[in-house]
């Protein structure tokens, strides 16, 4: 009897594993087809200057509409793309497309617009990220200083001489470096000393409850102070209400992103914001 139960348990587990593997395979194949068919998209979330309310740039965020027409969240397919190595080609596409779009905004006269692109660790390990960035800038004509590369702490703590030298070469192109989700990884602060990082993006797990949680406020205050003493800028992620915006501004945080200002939007909507309306929360006067 015990043996039978064990076997059933095992079989259940096995079936569960198969479903998981199958799902990943399905995602992987679908993603491959989408990349080939050119149906992947980028949305762009405004990055707002907290002192003026103006949109100074955007973060490019990948969007994939599955065959049923529904968006599949990046949190579900990026890990699959990383596991299969597909993230290297996807990452190249993202770099090319984001630079092309930003160069258009520049050509329309919005020459201050910056675009931030998320990079995966695998693009450093398996890809030639340096060549990809050079190509994306060359093909689009976008100046390097208009491009920010967002890296996670996990890329930086790997700390191989190869990663460090690639990052130094990227900096020579004038591109800016931001640490994404700052505070959630193994924050070895030593890389801030060794690498010419420009920006810390404070993870939304510290920002979401800022107005209600004094511990979060203390952490954000400390990060902003440290960043400024190192000559870095700060971006708060996940700002969802006016009180949080107000407190971040009072704490001296430089920039912010979040649903309070705007969700990630199709390029055409960013173009419209640039040309006419501005953001809903943009004050008539600075200050
Ligand atoms: P991330 O780089 O930290 O991007 C910020 C995420 O927070 C985005 O989720 C954005 O839609 C979401 N967000 C923005 N404002 C708010 C807010 O006020 N509240 C809440 N709750 N969320 C907000 P998204 O687009 O689902 O992307 C998730 C993650 O997937 C990104 O996190 C990034 O790590 C990864 N990702 C997205 N696009 C790319 C890409 O092109 N390449 C790579 N390698 N990773 C990407
Ligand atoms: Mg990011
Ligand atoms: Mg982030
Ligand atoms: Mg995040």
UniProtKB/TrEMBL annotation:
UniProt name for this protein: Diguanylate cyclase (GGDEF) domain-containing protein
Gene source species: Sphaerotilus microaerophilus
Domain EAL: 24-278
Entry keywords, A to Z: Membrane, Transmembrane, Transmembrane helix
Superkingdom as given in the UniProt entry: Bacteria
Range covered out of full length: 471 to 757 of 757
Coiled-coil annotated residue ranges, if any: none
């Amino acid at each position: 009897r015990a043996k039978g139960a064990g076997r059933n348990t095992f079989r259940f587990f096995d079936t569960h594993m198969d479903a998981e593997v199958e799902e990943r395979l399905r995602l992987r194949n679908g993603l491959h087809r989408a990349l080939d068919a050119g149906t992947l998209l980028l949305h762009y979330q405004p990055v707002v200057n907290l002192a003026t309310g103006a949109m100074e740039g955007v973060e490019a965020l990948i969007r994939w509409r599955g065959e049923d027409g529904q968006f599949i969240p990046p949190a579900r397919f990026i890990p699959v793309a990383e596991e299969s190595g597909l993230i290297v080609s996807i990452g190249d596409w993202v770099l090319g497309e984001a630079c092309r779009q930003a160069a258009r905004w520049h050509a329309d006269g919005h020459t201050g617009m910056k675009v931030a692109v998320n990079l995966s660790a695998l693009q450093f390990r398996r890809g030639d990220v340096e060549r990809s960035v050079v190509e994306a800038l060359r093909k689009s004509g976008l100046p390097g200083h208009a491009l920010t590369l967002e890296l996670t702490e996990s890329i930086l703590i790997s700390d191989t001489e190869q990663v460090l030298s690639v990052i130094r070469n990227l900096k020579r192109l004038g591109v800016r470096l931001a640490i994404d989700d700052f505070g959630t990884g193994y924050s070895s602060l030593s890389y801030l000393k060794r690498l010419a990082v420009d920006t810390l993006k404070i993870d939304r797990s510290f920002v979401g409850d800022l107005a209600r949680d004094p511990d979060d406020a203390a952490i954000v205050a400390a990060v902003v102070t440290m960043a400024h003493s190192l000559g870095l800028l700060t971006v708060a992620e996940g700002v969802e209400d006016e009180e949080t915006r107000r407190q971040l501004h009072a704490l001296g945080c430089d920039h912010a992103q979040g649903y309070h200002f705007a969700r990630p939007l199709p390029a055409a909507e960013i173009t419209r914001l640039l040309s006419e309306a501005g953001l809903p929360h943009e004050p008539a006067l600075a200050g």
